[in-house]
Amino acid sequence: MSSTPHDPFYSSPFGPFYRRHTPYMVQPEYRIYEMNKRLQSRTEDSDNLWWDAFATEFFEDDATLTLSFCLEDGPKRYTIGRTLIPRYFSTVFEGGVTDLYYILKHSKESYHNSSITVDCDQCAMVTQHGKPMFTKVCTEGRLILEFTFDDLMRIKTWHFTIRQYRELVPRSILAMHAQDPQVLDQLSKNITRMGLTNFTLNYLRLCVILEPMQELMSRHKTYNLSPRDCLKTCLFQKWQRMVAPPAEPTRQPTTKRRKRKNSTSSTSNSSAGNTTNSAGSKKKSAATNLSLSSQVPGLGAIPNCSLNPGRDGGDLCHSTAVTPAGQFKEKH
Question: Which residue ranges does UniProt annotate as crossing the membrane (predicted)?
Fold first, then answer.
């Protein structure tokens, strides 16, 4: 029977028994302590709903869990998403584990704008096995956690790199079977691989297939489609994303600035309006109009060519000029 925090002989891995204070932010290590307490409150009747509630309490909706270790056939690295995390913890207990908790020693915390990172180089995952024999397994490694910097303080990324493990068998059990070579030979064999049970390892291998299928499962659950229709829809949408041209970046509309009128044109217009009574003024205004047409294109002689034949059988071309009074006058 596993000890609980209410047991007077219970030794917490984080020192004395803590009480959580309301509304203010707690330490990230205390969240691991709370997770240990929640795992200890698990019963044999805990179903999938209990494990979903456990993952919702301690993991973000887009959280990822990564395990790195080295087996006989080489290094392994498994990463699972939020929907597969509850099943991962349940497989630990299905492999014969009766108790699970994590011990963090000399961890370092770093605060960012929206997250808190905890780096513990001396982390131990302790599992108590009741079958096939009573054994305590200490799995040591480096644990890197990223918490969201808010009131919930849930885990966003979990990365546990396993370095070594130890399987501890009580001396009392060895003394009981000291005269039985077969039992001693069975006790000398490891019951885990790098501290993980065969149930957990098989589930991690299965997650390599299940993780890419999350989109199919989500579509089947949302739209109630058959597996074949879900696969067709996902493949079609993926093909559309591959064929579709990349979206052009939106350009901000440029604001047009109104140009200020040329001071030369305003001066020439005012001088042309004030000198319409004298002949000398008319010559001056004509000269002014010529300078205006040369400075501002479009206000001088505008050639207009018509395709209709003239009297001599050629094309009839005429031009339009601007008079000093602002009126248009055609010149053939």
Answer: none
Q: Looking at the DSSP assignment, which residues form a beta bridge with residue 303?
A: 319
CA distances for 315 relative to 282, 312, 321, angstroms: 33, 8, 20
For the chain, 332 residues long, the average pLDDT of each consecutive 10-residue run is 47 46 64 96 91 96 96 94 94 93 94 92 95 90 95 94 94 83 85 94 91 79 86 87 72 60 52 50 48 46 46 47 50 49
Burial of residue 85 (number of CB atoms within 10 Å: 0-12, 13-18, 19+): buried
Q: Residue 329 CA to chain centroid, in angstroms?
A: 71
Count CB neighbours of 315 within 10 A: 11
- Are 319 and 331 contacting, i.e. CB atoms less than 8 angstroms apart? yes
Q: Say whether 305 sits in a helix, a strand or coil.
A: strand
pLDDT of residue 246: 67
Residue 257 amino acid letter:
R
Cα distance between residue 247 and residue 110, in whole Å: 38
pTM of the model: 0.61
What 3-state DSSP class applies to 117?
strand
Q: What's the CA gap between 138 and 123, in Å, rounded?
A: 10
Cα gap 332→329, rounded to integer Å: 10
Residue 119 neighbours by CB under 8 Å, 6+ apart: 107, 108, 109, 110, 142, 143, 144
Please report the sign of the dihedral spanned by the C-alpha atoms of residue 65, residue 69, residue 74, residue 75. positive
